[in-house]
Amino acid sequence: MWTKVFRLFFFFLGLIVLTHVSVQASEQSMKSGENCCICQTGTGMAFELPFFDVGCKIWLAQQSGCDMKKTVKYQRDSLNYIPRSCDGGEVRLGFVGHWNSTRQTINFLEPLIEEGMFRRQMSFDIDNTACFAMDRPNDLKNFFDYKQQLPTEQFLRFRGNQVLSVGTWDDIPFAFGNSNFYAIYDSRSGQVTYPNCSEFRGEVCSATFGIQKGQRGQCINEQGDLETLKCCGARFYKDTFRRLSRGSDRTRTEGITSNRWMHPAQCGQSVN
């Protein structure tokens, strides 16, 4: 009888050990997930969709250290587009298409946090290249401060544009100027990071079409304060030199009107 009891004891002890080892292996597998780079294309008019695809190709080409790369259609309520091999790893998620507000950003993040971060233990580094994804950056900070908790072992970083953007086309030299006025929220610091004003002040904003005229973005100035810059027109002057036939030079001041990121008080003024 005691022999049977000992056999049963060691049998169940073996099951417990195997179960523990299996759980540890499963947890280790979750912690060693792949680093996945995925770009979502948004919905729009038929003629826009090929441009969204090209934008995603540009974005994916800029990503390094990825175990896998792919382009998918935009999805909000399901994470089926993220392979299981990414579980426990870091997902770099890009978006090219149309967006309308920080409120849409929050709606997008809610299911991603619940399934992706809590259930599948993934961290997310999100780069939304569309318009207005961070038009009210503090709304996103307040969402995480007061409404939404995150798992302690994962992080979420979200970069979006405060204004109407030109997406990945901002990378084309001389096409749109310095147009993507961004802001970043990072759960590791719990803070919003604004760009330095020096990145944008005096820079051309959407020079090709002037589509950002009148829009405002916030940045950190040289004194460390939050400052608002506006995309507006002003007349800029520069000196040009002309070689005359007799060997002497003549200086002429030329005025050029263009849209640039400036302090609102400078809009419509003459700027040297």
Description:
This protein is of the alpha/beta class and 272 residues long. Helices cover 26% and strands 29% of the residues. It folds into two domains: 34-193, no CATH class; 196-272, no CATH class. The chain contains four helices and eleven strands; from the N terminus they run H-E-H-E-E-H-E-H-E-E-E-E-E-E-E. The chain has a seven-stranded mixed sheet. Strands 8, 9, 10 and 11 form a four-stranded mixed sheet that branches. Helix 3 (102-119) runs parallel beside helix 4. Residues 1-31 have low confidence and may be disordered.
Quick summary:
The protein is built from four helices and eleven strands. By secondary structure, the protein is an alpha/beta fold. The longest helix is centred in the N-terminal third of the chain and has 30 residues.
Features:
single chain; 272 residues; alpha/beta; 2 domains; 7-stranded mixed sheet; 4-stranded mixed sheet; 29% strand; disordered N terminus
Order of helices and strands: HEHEEHEHEEEEEEE
Sum up the overall morphology in one term: globular
| Residue fraction in strands | 25-35%
Strand order of the largest sheet: 2-1-3-4-5-6-7
- Count of alpha and pi helical runs: 4
The domain tally reads 2
Question: What is the CA-atom radius of gyration, in angstroms?
Answer: 26 Å
